[in-house]
Predict the 3D structure of the following.
Amino acid sequence: MTRTAIVTGGSRGIGASISVALKKAGYNVAANYAGNDEAAAKFSHETGIPVYKWSVGDYDACAAGLSKVEADLGPIDILVNNAGITRDSMFHKMTREQWNEVINTNLNGVFNMTHPLWSGMRDRRFGRVITISSINGQKGQAGQANYSASKAGDIGFTKALAQEGARAGITVNVICPGYIATDMVMAVPEKVREGIIAQIPVGRLGEPDEIARCVLFLASDEAGFITGSTITANGGQYLA
Ligand SMILES: NC(=O)c1ccc[n+]([C@@H]2O[C@H](COP(=O)([O-])OP(=O)(O)OC[C@H]3O[C@@H](n4cnc5c(N)ncnc54)[C@H](OP(=O)(O)O)[C@@H]3O)[C@@H](O)[C@H]2O)c1
């Protein structure tokens, strides 16, 4: 049976690697994205993976978008909540907009995507919900009170929902990447990036494919005994 997966923020960065890895492993894959039409069109052209545009921060848009994906590809078995943003600022300068945007995308977005799919997964007695949190949701990071709160929220969400899904054949897990070489990290000034690498025991940034391999493992039928877990993939930077 060919299973169907959707990856939010699946046309760039870590999400693009996840989409491609799932496709190579034989899944039907849809990639969602928010606004970068050019990157999404290029990705779809190069990979043959269909792309769907909506914001994970909008519940109604998620419900409508997911219905469209299911009409095109069939019921969704695997949800990868990967979309995420940063709006960094020290707390004394942080605006309500910076706080709300990050919580709405990184935490509400996970609710907005998972909730419309949950009943179908329960009815079919199979599901995989895999959320990409962050090292900074585990350890906290100055300048990221909004981001750290949202990513810690993703971990709590996972632990609670895993207990609800277990009897219905649905596993719910979270991956906490350390610093990975994507646009998000390459946007950081080079000097700051060098400082980050100096704190990583393996001596380098992670590669998006290294996170995609964690997703492949959790998505598989064979990973049914693993639920509520937090997979840490950070080059030894923080031992949770
Ligand atoms: N890179 C790292 O070092 C690192 C470390 C730990 C955790 N993470 C987490 O890993 C995930 C992916 O990060 P990345 O570095 O690959 O990010 P990225 O290169 O900035 O890509 C982010 C992706 O998310 C999409 N997106 C943003 N807001 C969205 C929304 N409201 N609705 C739907 N899609 C949205 C973007 O869509 P568009 O293409 O349309 O803009 C893009 O495809 C994030 O959750 C991030 O917090 C990253």
In short: The pocket of NAP is lined by residues 8-9, 11-15, 32-36, 39, 55-57, 82-85, 105, 109, 132, 134, 177, 179-180, 182-185 (CB under 6 Å). The first strand starts at residue 4 and ends at 7. The chain is about 50% helix and 15% strand.
